[in-house]
Amino acid sequence: MKTTEHIARQIREVYFGKNWSGPYLKQQLEGVNWKQATTQIHNINTIATLVFHMNYYVKGVSDYLEGGELEIRDKFSFDHPPIHSQEDWDEFLKDIYASGERFAKILEKQPDSILGEIFFDKPYGTYARNFMGISEHFHYHLGQITIIKKFL
């Protein structure tokens, strides 16, 4: 199995399950309704905001890998669309899960030779650093979501 296929598997696992660390996104969001997802506790981000933030980079990198521009900017990474109903939340999650699967499929198609190459521009590091960074970023925020759920 190619390394890019292993990374794709890790992405799927952190979204949909069977990852090494246990908790995964879909599991953590099961039973969370739109009001809970948008409830802010103290001064921390909401579940909806964190989920958007996590997936923002997945979508941006996916677009870039498919020949688009790298248009993502950190300052916009928490600006999720409004969620005013359960229907909004359900559509939001549907898009999130589709983005995870899309990214995994794109990663599987990448040759391993790309991993050591510079991603976009030198300050961003290599493709490997960015692909693995996305997985690490997911695990980091997944922990936050787990804690927020306990407060709710």
Task: Supply the key terms.
mainly alpha, Four Helix Bundle (Hemerythrin (Met), subunit A), single chain, 152 residues, 6 helices
Question: Your description of this structure?
Answer:
The chain has helices spanning 3-16, 25-29, 34-37, 47-65, 86-109, 127-151. With 152 residues, the protein is mainly α. It has one domain: Up-down Bundle (Four Helix Bundle (Hemerythrin (Met), subunit A)), CATH 1.20.120.450. The mean pLDDT is 95.
Q: Count of helices?
A: 6
Spatial shape: globular
Question: What is the element string, with H for helices and E for strands?
Answer: HHHHHH
CATH superfamily: dinb family like domain
Largest sheet: none
Structural class: mainly alpha
* Helical amount: 55-70%
CATH class: Mainly Alpha
Taken as a percent bin, the fraction of beta residues is under 5%
Number of strands: 0
CATH 2nd-level architecture: Up-down Bundle
Overall mean pLDDT stands at 95
Low-pLDDT runs: none
Based on CA atoms alone, the radius of gyration comes out at 16 Å
Indicate how many domains the architecture comprises.
1
Fold blueprint:
Elements: H1 3-16, H2 25-29, H3 34-37, H4 47-65, H5 86-109, H6 127-151
In a nutshell, what does this entry contain?
The protein has 152 residues and is mostly helical. It contains six helices and no strands.
